[in-house]
Amino acid sequence: MGKETILKTLRHEKTDEVAWVPFTGVHAAFMKGYTATEILTDGDKLFDALMNVHKLYTPDGMPIVFDLQIEAEILGCKLMWSDENPPSVVKHPLRKTKEIPCKCQIPKKTDGRIPMIMEVCERVKKAVGDDTALYGLLCGPVTLASHLRGTDFFMDIISDPTYTEELVAFCAEVNIALAKYYVEAGMDVIAVVDPIISQISPSAIEAHFLSSFQAIFDEIRNMGVLSCLFVCGDATNQMDVMARSRADGISIDENVNIVEAKKITDQYNVTICGNIPLTTVMLFGNQLDNMKYVVDMLDGIDHHNLVISPGCDMPFKIPVDNTIACVQAIKHTDESREMVKNHETAGSLMDIELPDYQALTKPFVELFTLDADTCAACTYMVNAVKDVKEIMGNDFDMAEYKYNIKEDIARTQKMGVQHLPSIYINGEVRWSSIIPPREELIAAIKELM
Amino acid sequence: MSKITELAVVVEEGRIDDVVAAVEAALEEGNAPMDILNAGLIDPINVLGEKFRLGEVYVPELLISSKAMKMGVDRIKPLLAAGDVKVLGKAVFCTVEGDMHDIGKNLVVLLLESAGFEVIDLGMDVEPDDIVEAIQENDDVQILGMSAMLTTTMYAMKETIEALEEAGLRDRVKVLIGGAPVNQIFADQIGADGYTTNAPSAVELCKKLVVA
């Protein structure tokens, strides 16, 4: 894992490989069987979920929390919580009054969920901070202003721009305060996440809000860490003004053509981050779709000043193996390109004979992997079975099939394996993309003895 | 410049403090209320809708101009003769269960109303059963529009379509969906009749759906 790769990329230095940052917000909860609310409010569960992300997705950089309502909650917004999403703002304190909140309301580090996030950040820093860059995410000043004011904020931009400038400037001070706390806790990169700026004209951003963004990113630079500006939606027309925000990197989602956007960010020597499609590819695609998408993306774009990441906060239920395929494609692009090619031709390669599972004399554990030498999740899964093999000896047979060997691809396809890595016992799928605890694995094998 | 043209400029520029006075000036000039409605209030919104589609204006401009238009319509409405305003169709709109993101839905509702549709706005976080009930209670509704911002709530659209089928109402309404995570593929998968990427094109689609 390459924290240094992230830092170098955001410093616009040459790197040997492309950096990878999975935006595992509430998806980290899904991976461990928690709800979104649990990891956003319980530090132990959040830490547990983040360690699992680190293990399975081998990130160069990872966010501690992806929740744009942390500041809003402290500033008096009422939230509606959800099992599979970050909370939503349902009541806006400035809906009926055009006030600028008092500076005394700027969050202190003891307010709201800030202490929990700082504590988890410190724990993650100790555990994996040497090899992984930690991202502290802030709700950007424009989105935070809209949380406080509600939909009228959009109309204020036209009817009372001075008010919106002042409100956004206040929110920028909130950003700077939180950035200080997060840097103190060990964050390496501060990301200002401002999804709604894609809905505002570049000229309005320039006239009313650009100076606030520049103030935030100047302050973050003074704190000695790196920065990113995240946007969601079709921000094609906003790329130029965003590139002048003085952020070290800009993160975009699939609504923006990354090749074209990079031409703009390159003019300003800003790093671009993105933009694996969240729904069509990561959520609804299969493993090969994800691998192919990332390989094609890497083949079509200059790797300097580039971070590969999902388009935005990953949906809760993205199949874990889809992300694993993305990791494989980023970290082992040549092998993945071969896998994609072989997958397309393997069906006609040979007629693989499957074991007669009904006639087995002892349990047969089969591991279908991408390649345990290069895919961390596969390595953990293979080692889990090998550990049990050492304990149980000849009580069961085992075999590993790798997706970079043509015969094994044909076998994987014939078995109808949907997700890699997977463990099958006696021809039946038992675990997909989940590393089973030793006791569970032993019990499953013993059941069939 | 005629007072109607001046009104159209006021609406297009979203000058909500000036719109009522501009309507009154157009009336004083002797213009027919119906002409003021069409040329002074609705036409500029159509122009703005096209500019939105081309990326020349954004959500703030569209929202405030729609608000200006609505204020103008409220002023002119009592002066219109019964039957003057042709209702193009009737629609029910909402964000689906669990989804509290309504900016897009609100925009579509505003533009639809300005285009001549009658819209029952059920608001945010509306359960499938409540949507079905609204359609049952209004037997002249032709369109159901649902919006979702989240990948988790978008499935409530499918549940709602299934609930419509169970209630025997599916053939009575055309279902239109929109929102960040959905696309045409998803619309096809769940059996929706239409999908669009933005508010002005949603209005165009509604116009097509009611004559289809």
UniProtKB/TrEMBL annotation, chain B:
The keyword Methyltransferase applies. GO terms for molecular function: cobalamin binding; metal ion binding; methionine synthase activity. Keywords: Cobalt, Metal-binding, Methyltransferase, Transferase. Residues 1-88 form the B12-binding N-terminal domain. It is an enzyme of class 2 (transferase). Pfam families: B12-binding (PF02310), B12-binding_2 (PF02607). Transmembrane segments: none annotated. SUPFAM superfamilies: Cobalamin (vitamin B12)-binding domain (SSF52242), Methionine synthase domain (SSF47644). GO terms for cellular component: cytosol. Residues 88-212 form the B12-binding domain. InterPro entries: Cbl-bd_cap, Cobalamin-bd, Cobalamin-bd_sf, Met_Synthase/Corrinoid, Meth_synthase_dom. SMART domains: B12-binding_2. GO terms for biological process: homocysteine metabolic process; methylation; tetrahydrofolate metabolic process. Its EC number is 2.1.1.13. Belongs to the methylamine corrinoid protein family. This is Methionine synthase.
